[in-house]
Structures are given as structure tokens and as C-alpha cells.
Amino acid sequence: MHKVSLGKSGPLISALGLGCMGMSGMYGPSDRRESIATIHAALDAGITLLDTGDFYGMGHNEMLIGEALKGRDRDQIQLSVKFGALRDPAGGWSGYDARPKVVRNFLACTLQRLGVDYIDIYRPSRLDPDVPIEETVGAIADMVKAGYVRHIGLSEVGPETIRRAAAVHPICDLQIEYSLVSRGIEDEILPTCRDLGIGITAYGVLSRGLISGHWRKDAVGAGDFRALSPRFQEGNVDRNLALVEALGRVAAAKGVSVAQIAIAWVAAQGADIVPLVGARRRGRLSEALGSQAVHLDADDLAAIEHAVPKGAAAGARYPEAQLVHMDSERHG
Q: 56 catalytic, yes or no?
């Protein structure tokens, strides 16, 4: 597995990361044993970056990863953790909090659940509209000084917030959705990060399975948040699957899968971009790992662009009620 530096101030990580959210119920039921086996397979294949959030399964995801990491060399693994989203006992969402005093509380619980002494990259999952980003980053910086955090990251914020945060403490990366069908960061956010030497960890590279080549219209079950996603709704999903069909023809001509060419496209957009793959099973992980061997030349990139033009996806990436609260949506 090729390794890259995550921004100019971040750690050396694998060129592909494993996003673990789907292992804790966000896409419906998951198999604990298979999830742990998938994490082990990822580590054995050379993936060193594991991404989670303390609110994934209300702590379930962190405990799962903690169990999977037992007996592994901690210094060879980078843990990226998001915090700030609040949950209720029924599993619902009840707001967001990134005040300095809760940063310390969230971090203490995260360290306990993961069973580790430090977090490699700690980041607020969204901008708290009631708390200046300088205060949140300053609180994490105190934890860096104390040795509990190694690097500070951001997630789903726009150019102004990125610059304000970077003025307080070096930011190693911005975690944000980026894929063939979610290219909003190209206008302002990506240039801002590159100007400041901040890397990108790209989630949603397969648009939550939509452009994986495996999606079926009847695949959304109970507990799957895609049931509310605009791109999976009637009137949108058929148009989006037509894009996937066109991409499939390009992939077939290249002798690779749709998922592999979609992941490879993200990686081809720059050495400073690290795709996060959300594989929940070893078979899907193996397919994603195959993207590392896919080289896209200028003709390939042109064919992909023709198949899935920028802005061609039908429906927003999140429901409107969530988009209005996302700082990253205020600027592309």
C-alpha cells in the first residue's frame, strides 16, 4: 500500500482509508464478526487510516474498533475521530455541541471506548453555529499539548472557516464528501485547502453505494438513512442509475469494476486526496483495494467525464434540512 503525507502538517498514512461508520447501523443491520474481520483484513492489506465518529452507533463504532485493534501495533495505525453530534436514547439526532468544555469530555470518552492513549486526528464533525471555530480548535490544541491528540482536522466546513481554524493551529486535513457525483469542493474549498497545505480525506466516494455498481432499488431496509437521501428517492434514483450504467461501460472497457474506477477517479484528482472506503465486508474491501492498481490516463478521465458530467447527479447529497446547517454548502 502506497503511503502519503496527510497535508503538510499531518501524519504519514495509507493512500486509502477505511471509513467504519457503516459497521454501526447507519446503513441498517451489520455483522459484528464480519466487521471486525474486515478491519483486520484492511490492516493486513496495508491500510493504516481508520475513520470513525463518537456518535456512530452512540459509541458502538469506537468500541468495535477498539476490540479489533487488540494485539495490533498502535503506532502503525492512525485513528481519525469526529465528535460533536448529539444523540438521544432512541437513536435520533438532537443537535450539535463543540464548546471547549465538551471537547474534553467527548475526547475522554473516545479514548476509553477505543482503549488507546491518544487520537491521531481529532475533528469537529460540523461547525457549531454557536461556537467560534477558533474556540473549538483552541480546545483541541490544548489536548495536543497534553499529548491526547496528535493532529487536528476539520469536517464539512467552507473556506472562511478553514482559514480561521488554520490561523489558530495547523490543520492536517479536511474530511468532506467528494466523488464523481459530489464535486462541489472543486470551486473554492479544494483550492483553499491546497493554498494552506491541508489534505483532503474524501468520504462518500461511492455516494453511499449509489455508484458502486452493486446498488439495487430495493436495497434500502429498516434503519438505513439512505431512505431519506434525495439521490435515492423516486424521480432521482433512476436518473442516477443511468449515470452508473454509463460509468459501467467505461469501467468494462478498462477491465475494472464500477466501484474501482469511481475510487480511482477520486484518487487521481491529486496526491493530497485520500479516499475513504466504507466497506463493511471483506469482499467489498477487496474490490476497493483493487482500485489501487487502476491507472487512469487522459483518455480515461475524459471518458469518465463524458459518462458522469460534473453536476449531473439528480438530488442533493443530504436532505435540505441538513444542508442548511452545513458550513461547507455555503461555498463550493
A: yes
- Three-state DSSP class for residue 106: helix
CATH of the domain at 254: 3.20.20.100
**160: closest CA among 125, 130, 195?**
195
Give me the catalytic one of 27, 56, 148, 318. Answer: 56
The domain tally of the chain equals 1
Domain housing 104: 3-330
Per-residue model confidence as pLDDT tens digits over 195-240: 999 999 999 999 887 888 776 666 655 556 666 777 787 888 888 8
For cell 453511499, what's the residue? 208
Cα-based torsion angle of the residue sequence 243, 155, 286, 24 in order, rounded to the nearest 10 degrees = -100
Q: Where are the alpha helices (DSSP H) in the chain?
A: 32-44, 60-68, 100-114, 133-146, 159-166, 189-196, 237-254, 258-267, 282-289, 298-307, 320-323
Which cell numbers in the block locate residue 10? 499531518
Which grid coordinates are listed for 263? 475510487
> Longest C-alpha distance within the chain, in Å?
54
